Amino acid sequence: MSTNRYNLEGGAPAAAEATLRYITAAKYEGDWNSSLHTHSCAEMFYVVGGRGQFRIEDKVYPVSANDLVVINPYVMHTETSLDLSPMEYIVLGIDALELTGRESQSSQFYITSFRGGDVQFYLRDMLREMEQRPEGYETVCQAILNILVRKLRRNPDFSADFSVSVPQVSKESAIVRRYIERHFKENISLDILAEAAHINKFHLAHLYSKDYGVSPISHLLSLRIQESRYLLQSTDLPLAQIARITGFSSPSYFSQSFRRAEGISPTEYRQRCRARKSGG
Q1: What local confidence, expressed as pLDDT, does residue 51 receive?
Q2: What CA–CA distance (Å, rounded) separates 59 from 93?
Q3: CA-based nearest residue to 24, from 43, 38, 4
């Protein structure tokens, strides 16, 4: 996998509607690292060529050349390429921008296809600016980003919309969130999370709930449930193995937690998914 990433070193102009954090050009070369992850910023992917798929939370979506994928902050996702048609894409990391409601898709992401050249033109222009770094390149990149967002809003084929949002999240909460998302399948306690952030566990619980509206342990459980939903849908693994893979201490605790979150047992959930797939 060849990847060229360029980070902006300065701040955004005061009038910017959104802040470009980074731009990355990536092409599959047989060593694609495909693991679920999130970002504290929104990401906007444009598939330049080839074919692949995005896993967003517990569902998989095929993508191909000219597809645009926008994913909100803190949404679990990963992208993979198809070996026979290697995927190439350009991705922007964007602070202070979030998708808002749409009719047909989850409010956490948006996928559409653009056959015109405007989106790729603006992305290529930003890449050139970042590669060559002429005087004022950061200001130019911020301006291009805002033009691109406005262009997308005007396009009748783009049925999403954006809102400007600048979350005020503490450094400690952000550290813990990243830790949870990277290690949620492991044995994690509030003590371990507090140690990762170097703060008292009671202070952490209060701070995290204030920043994200949910306790760190509740967030941990929700990620485990989310992963278990995907495994129940897409595999025939026994419940005990799914419980172990997703970090639950026992199959009974997994079943109890799943029923509390989903309102049905893991077995019932799997049966319903299979019935939907078979048209029953």
Answers
A1: 93
A2: 22
A3: 4
Which pair of tokens denotes residue 144?
Answer: 């291009």
| Distance from C-alpha of 255 to C-alpha of 265, rounded to nearest angstrom | 6
CA distance 95 to 97: 6
The H or E element that residue 89 is part of is strand 88-95
Strand partners, 24: 5, 91
Question: What secondary structure letter does DSSP report for 104?
Answer: S
Length of the chain: 280
Backbone dihedral angles phi then psi of residue 180, each to the nearest 5 degrees: -60, -45
Q: Please give the Cα distance from 204 to 109 (Å, whole number).
A: 29
Residue with tokens 């997308």: 152
Half-sphere exposure of 121 (CA within 13 A, CB side): 8
Cα dihedral 72, 109, 43, 28 sign: positive
Q: What angle do CA 67, 72, 73 make, to 5 degrees?
A: 135
For residue 160, give the nearest of 77, 67, 98 by alpha carbon.
Answer: 98
Residue 180 has pLDDT above 60, yes or no: yes
- 54 within 8 A of 77, measured Cβ to Cβ: yes
Tokens at 146, concatenated: 């805002």
The partner residues of 23 in beta bridges, in order of sequence, read 6, 92
Average pLDDT, the chain: 86
Determine contact, residues 81/87, Cβ cutoff 8 Å.
yes
The C-alpha atoms of residue 280 and residue 274 are separated, in whole angstroms, by 8
